[in-house]
Amino acid sequence: MSGRVLITGASSGIGRQLALDYRCAGWQVWGCGRDEGRLQALADAGITPLQFDARDSAAMARVAAGLPVLDLVILNAGNCEYMDVAEGFDGALFARVIETNLIATGHALAAFLPRLAPGSRLAIVSSSVSWLPLPRAEAYGASKAGLDYLADTLRLDLATRGIGVSLIRPGFVSTPLTAKNDFPMPCLVTVEEASRAIMSGLAAGRHQIHFPRRFIWLLRLFGALPTGLWLRLGRTLTSKGSPS
User: Fold this and answer.
1) CA 161, CA 153: separation in Å to the nearest integer?
2) Residue 237: pLDDT band by 50, 70, 90 thresholds?
3) Mean local confidence (pLDDT), 173-198
4) SS3 171
5) CA nearest to 34, candidates 60, 4, 67
6) DSSP per residue over 178-212, as a string?
7) d(CA 103, CA 142)
């Protein structure tokens, strides 16, 4: 199967690997990002680069106006910043992460949803962090939980238009973003493994795509613990450096 796919956050990490893999599979690919140099590398691989800041709704609208009808849109752009609440709640950091991960997704939906026809699919990349509250993840976790609800609601409303919606919730993936983490990352997978899991799930029309399976089950198990017990465990994690 091949078609036309647009991927945001395609200049690095999961988005870049998805762009390359879809191109290798015979798809026509539009890869979106801010970094001109990285986008040029995608262009060299036969991918059409689209340069804009995901927070710039006007820029996205201009780009979208020149696109054909698409078979798949993958909204993957995002960022992660941790907060040390013991030193005070950082409102600016919170707003910055929410704007990048959640508000910018809304701008992308406004721009690119009109390019999706019946039978097409929308995919939103969230995170496994929304399974379980984790230390220092106030901003990142809130932004991803918002994406979860957004995707679930869109799935209901877009069904009448024949557009499927997939929510993607990866665990730890080895990317330039996670390379900044200063704590152990259990069940870490490569971008190639992540791309295969996502492409397979999208091809099957799955509503939820989450991986790696063992890590997700651990998160769900911990999430079922009584709040008091998880609070005690959370204090231990905070003292050692927190995962997300």
Assistant:
1) 14
2) low
3) 86
4) coil
5) 60
6) GGG--S--TT-B-HHHHHHHHHHHHHTT-SEEEE-
7) 12
Cβ-count burial 162-176 (b if 16+ within 10 Å, e if not): ebbbbbbbbbbbbbe
Q: For the chain, how many residues are written?
A: 244
The token pair that represents 89 in the structure block: 């709640």
User: What is the average pLDDT across 198-227?
Assistant: 89
For the cut 80, the answer to whether the pLDDT of residue 156 exceeds it is yes
Check if CATH label 3.40.50.1820 holds for domain 4-240. no
Report the 10 Å Cβ neighbour count for 182. 7
Residue 243 reports pLDDT greater than 50: no
At 235, the pLDDT band (50, 70, 90 cuts) reads low
To the nearest whole percent, how much of the chain has pLDDT over 70?
A: 95
Catalytic residues: 140
77-82 contacts, C-beta under 8 A, 24 or more apart: 77/8, 77/9, 77/15, 77/32, 77/33, 77/104, 77/105, 77/108, 78/9, 78/125, 78/143, 79/177, 80/140, 80/177, 80/244, 81/139, 81/140, 82/136, 82/137, 82/139, 82/140, 82/242, 82/244
CA dihedral 153, 154, 156, 161 (to 10 degrees): 170
pLDDT score of 176: 78
21-24, Cβ contacts within 8 angstroms, sequence gap of 24 or more? 21/192, 21/195, 21/196, 21/199, 22/199, 23/47
